[in-house]
Amino acid sequence: MHGQISKTASNSDNFFEPAFFYRSAREGMCDFLAQNFAEPHDGVLLPAFIGWSPNEGSGVFDPVKELGNPFGFYNLNPDLTVELQDLERKLASGDFRILVIIHYFGRTEPALLTISALADKYGVLLVEDLAHGFFSAVGGSEAGSFGHVRLFSLHKMFPFTQGGLITYASPSLVKGQKSTMAELAVNILSYNWTSIAERRRSNFVDITERLKSLPECGSKFELLWPELGSSDVPQTLPVRIAGDSRDDVYRRMNEAGFGMVSLYHTLIEQVRNDFDSMTELSRHIINFPVHQDVLPELLDALVRTFQSHLND
After folding, report:
1. What is the CATH number of domain 19-189?
2. 0.70 exceeded by the pTM?
């Protein structure tokens, strides 16, 4: 009997998942939709917590709007996990061919397996928005494991001024897409992903422990993500601030030299009137930096300054 094992791998189809690099993830999303879903009936279903800013617009929604796809939104729970009953109700309408889920702040959506099953049940394509979840996806989390399409914002993870990555679970979805910034492949491979992920996780855990010990925790603010999943790597650390002081705290923290961000501070107008709880959350959320440049010795000062401005 003759052997059937070659000396080295030679089948280029085995485990092949096409990848394309762009100036931004939204550019990649636009390329994907334009090549695959350009018909008037190709509806896109998105989560109801999607941000907008005058400088950047709205990342995942802008391509849908610009290409003229019909769209709809499903509700989320207060912690930004998917509200499964509303999701299934929207999918059952038959109006959508594409379902987008967002792994907010790098946290893996806990119902991802159920959502994938619903996508299969209703025959829709699942797009995982991993703009915040590059390191979660490559580090062993389930994030990125079920989507037919995965979107990554590399400039939110690495020290780049721009950069997006789109990967496909099947070559059948590639029908003319082209990279516009292929050199990013070299750039991201020039960094130690494991060390970056470890620093981000460590910063998240250390800041969380400090915040939990503050007497204001639970009254003047609450942690949106109090525990870090074993394989999740955060983009930022989200906090919900009580009352109307979010914008003031944001301004004072940045004036003091602590780079807080206020992601999703304003939602796209298409959801503001129909999802009151999401609109309310957008007015109170603020995010602590946990990126790889945040040095551990600065965390005490970061949290003390936050406490001071919170009480002011």
Report:
1. 3.40.640.10
2. yes
